[in-house]
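Hi W.,

Here's what went into the run:
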Amino acid sequence: MYEFRNDYNSVGHPKVVEKLMDQVHVRYPGYGFDQACDEAKEKIQAKINKDVKINFVPSGTSANILSLTANLKPYEGVVAAESGHIVNDEAGALEAVGHKVVFVESQDGKIKAQALKDYLDQEHDFFNILPKIVYISNSTELGTVYRKAELEEIYSICKDHDVTLYIDGARMGSALMSPVCDYSLEDLAGLCDIFTLGGTKNGALFGEAVVFCNKDLGENFHYYLKQHGVLTAKGFLMGLQYGVLFTENLYFENAKRANAMAQKLVDGLKEIGVDFAYPPESNQIFVALEKDLLDPLAQKVTFEDFGPLEGDLECARFVTTYHTKEEEVDGLLASLKDLL
Amino acid sequence: MYEFRNDYNSVGHPKVVEKLMDQVHVRYPGYGFDQACDEAKEKIQAKINKDVKINFVPSGTSANILSLTANLKPYEGVVAAESGHIVNDEAGALEAVGHKVVFVESQDGKIKAQALKDYLDQEHDFFNILPKIVYISNSTELGTVYRKAELEEIYSICKDHDVTLYIDGARMGSALMSPVCDYSLEDLAGLCDIFTLGGTKNGALFGEAVVFCNKDLGENFHYYLKQHGVLTAKGFLMGLQYGVLFTENLYFENAKRANAMAQKLVDGLKEIGVDFAYPPESNQIFVALEKDLLDPLAQKVTFEDFGPLEGDLECARFVTTYHTKEEEVDGLLASLKDLL
Amino acid sequence: MYEFRNDYNSVGHPKVVEKLMDQVHVRYPGYGFDQACDEAKEKIQAKINKDVKINFVPSGTSANILSLTANLKPYEGVVAAESGHIVNDEAGALEAVGHKVVFVESQDGKIKAQALKDYLDQEHDFFNILPKIVYISNSTELGTVYRKAELEEIYSICKDHDVTLYIDGARMGSALMSPVCDYSLEDLAGLCDIFTLGGTKNGALFGEAVVFCNKDLGENFHYYLKQHGVLTAKGFLMGLQYGVLFTENLYFENAKRANAMAQKLVDGLKEIGVDFAYPPESNQIFVALEKDLLDPLAQKVTFEDFGPLEGDLECARFVTTYHTKEEEVDGLLASLKDLL
Amino acid sequence: MYEFRNDYNSVGHPKVVEKLMDQVHVRYPGYGFDQACDEAKEKIQAKINKDVKINFVPSGTSANILSLTANLKPYEGVVAAESGHIVNDEAGALEAVGHKVVFVESQDGKIKAQALKDYLDQEHDFFNILPKIVYISNSTELGTVYRKAELEEIYSICKDHDVTLYIDGARMGSALMSPVCDYSLEDLAGLCDIFTLGGTKNGALFGEAVVFCNKDLGENFHYYLKQHGVLTAKGFLMGLQYGVLFTENLYFENAKRANAMAQKLVDGLKEIGVDFAYPPESNQIFVALEKDLLDPLAQKVTFEDFGPLEGDLECARFVTTYHTKEEEVDGLLASLKDLL
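Here's what came out:
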């Protein structure tokens, strides 16, 4: 089987697991108040080059939901694209903590700045919730990557309306290392109020780093984590992992490797004439295939079916990772070519 | 420093971490629907020897809160001892998902059966919540262990009142391996409706196994986990860890080792004339020390201060683990003796 | 000023207030467990001619939210039209109790049966909420009224998918008395699982009657009301009011009167060439006016601005009630004619 | 039957209902943004003689829960006496909106200042909730009334700890008119941050006035009301009622009348040798009766059984109101005397 199902299908990067093995006889204080976490935060901070506040959270959904709810009053809500992860992939987690999401028009997973402005310009009163945070993801759920000018425009609109901009970076590594990306991690910290640096999909066993660029936000954030059951007792585990990922650029190297395999796949797909459902810009590649190709392809390749497109076409998603091998890409392409 | 602060201060048992290292190039499906989880569940099931339903949950608070809320209507509540973990140590997590806890009298962390019966016998109407689940922990937050007759009596009262009995087993290994424990894991499955088998404090990096002995409970439990952000993407990590812990009795051996070190500590404490705040029955030992001994002791030993007792006495907790060394126990005893 | 702002702008029907005055020296038990409530329920039940369960709730939002949440598990959600009252007019109240709303295509405020079927036919898994209740309103927020065949089709789809159909009847009187309505209150009880009979907008000071046609639903409903702070201490007040409204058909006479005034208004609007934004079928009439007419009109008439339509048109809503006078309709028409 | 069951057993004071009748043809704007509300607030404000913010809320539980939650972060909680209304009589409503209550020692329904100080002085960290609001009721659930010095001491402790003091005044009229009360409504506004002036139990059909003495609190309070379904559409109804109650001192006259009947009852009870369960200081009188007297007494008098006291004694509650008649008090006393 050639593995393109997702980017959370293996234990973690060998260097990360080796570090855990290496530390197996060391003792740490609990709940993330330890030296491993401190050092990891310093390393991340050094890349960001701005005075930020960082918390480690064990899962992507927790990182999203708690970053949002910790900065919302009960009557305030979130603005997102209809394709947003908080909309379709978190089982109503945001609503479960009491908040409503409203949609603005988007394209290929990216919010349209004008639609956002139009919505925020409207009068908002007590009949509906007050919009207070804009949620975007980067790379998006459809594999696309925001350009610097797009982020600048969205952030500017947010600031004009006293609204917080939150970027879900479960796949931020792949976004930042994308060939289309025209900003660095350091730049990013000036383009939003809060962002996350996902570990789970980029070499860690688990863990997301929530970065509060605006340090007025996220007051007492560890209380929210504790109350939600995700202030990890062995918090040092995330410190150790992020320490490895941000040593010698492993976090970025992993993402680059995933993107390189995605690029190889994109080139091959173009060659054999497969169309893309969305612009291929990161480690998630969405293609349009004849519906009856999917079953035979699934005999040789793992991937996800993203539902019907126009006509008889179906959307399939192939995901590459830091451990994807060239032979796997070749194998997928050959399998697909056979079926066309 | 001699380490007696808690039992979640190291990465995990070396065999567990080795297993993760060993599997670093294997690919797994997501969200716990994988072979590693299936095999681990089979191994646990084999020890229980009863048809049960098992879910892995990454943290103790999540395991508690979700096991409770998944079996409660909004107007139903939980009965617990005032010392219960859900009462004092989870930052209001149960209330945050909407449920109220009511207390019944307890001694040394254990609910008194008669007090439970008296409370459940009362008429309950719509002015207050309806009691629907009894929460106990074993070993308790004060280190004590329920006897079989106590569990039988409590469970019988629960069944008479159509109330569920849930046992928080964050330290179930230590409870079952306690010299005072007169039942096995297999017995336990007949003594309650739901219990957990904690991994985090007994060799795993993270993870609790929630065991539904009454399979009518916990319907669609993975939906609750997903909505709460704790349906771990790399669920196979818990499958791998529990697989190791339930191979060759490692789970029980770890607990035995922790208890043996606790027993050595208890013997030594008795010798030097230190009094116990609660009966020492598992890997948490609570002692009564003159208040002004704590600061000097903290120069040599890590432990937790559990607050004032009568007179000038203060309660200190020493926790042993599977990796506690005899020299550490000796060191603690010598340090303490010097101060007396 | 000619009053067309809404249908909750006066104390209540004189006969209702007279009844309260008349009973001012009588003593009643609390929380709705009294003879006045029993008698009112019997009167409503007699009109419905089916064994139903009835609860009185003081407000429309409470009636909606609690009827929904009392029949949902935390991971289940509600399907509605984007124009639904629970979507736009309740300040995120449903999300505040933990539930998500998903939209299906609608026209003029009415859910399209085919769109509902398509959505419910999809596979629903743990990545998103499970649809469990369909919410519609009748008359809708846009003043339209469901036909019998439409309700039959929607209810049939619901039953095929084991989904509950809830009808928000804050304006059910006007719907049932609409010239386009081809079913009775008795029929209605066979066309859905739960519906409400709104009092606040049809003669009562406050109060909605929630009617559970499917008596398996709404178990312990008064607990939900109590916990939400809306199990009215003086519940008998709603019993007294509904008793009056369902004596000598006052409930229906009030609605007929409101509809008659709406019909007079519709006829007049057609005469002077004003277009309707949505089909005028009940006591809420939505018209399309040149944007710059609204300010001068507001000097003489109270109404609500429902936002921009195409081009330079703006949507204005005129609402009639049982106490609207013919002179007021004439006054509105004359004021408008002057401006055209 | 002599009626002493509760103080919410009749429609409302005749003058209040007359006012509603009188206004039956007047039109008002919705949601409490009307002249009747404005005028009523001015009248209340005039008695308070301090710049406060006032909101009308239809029920006591809503007034309590929303006043508390609107001033709490999710990880903050409430301190109360174990006898508190929010603890025993609101069906877990506060927990349902996510907040935990912790208890401090109390006597006869009143919090002990020293116990409050001791609790607030403790270190509070992320293992449990942070105390942020102290809830007391006046008169208390046991009929007692705080003295000025007691309120001053409690409020001073609250301010020292940056904690808000909230007084549930569902029966504030009776408290302020109590012979033991040594402060006025004007004084009260300097003795706490928020208090309520209950209408439901003192002449209104429904309605509580929430008074924010500290105007920094309760920001956007009407959003909380709307989201909770209790921003009454016909908000003017509460404006009209409070307008009557605060004209010519009716609010205080009603309470005085209730207290006078209570005093008459107390005198009679003393004469016939009945003991009080708690000090009789307001319109709720709690007595200790032989258990087997209750059934025969219930043949002639309505009252509530408050459960067992020591020995064979049972606690019975008699409640007087502004409409209690002298003959009723005589009747109760005679009935009781017959049984002794």
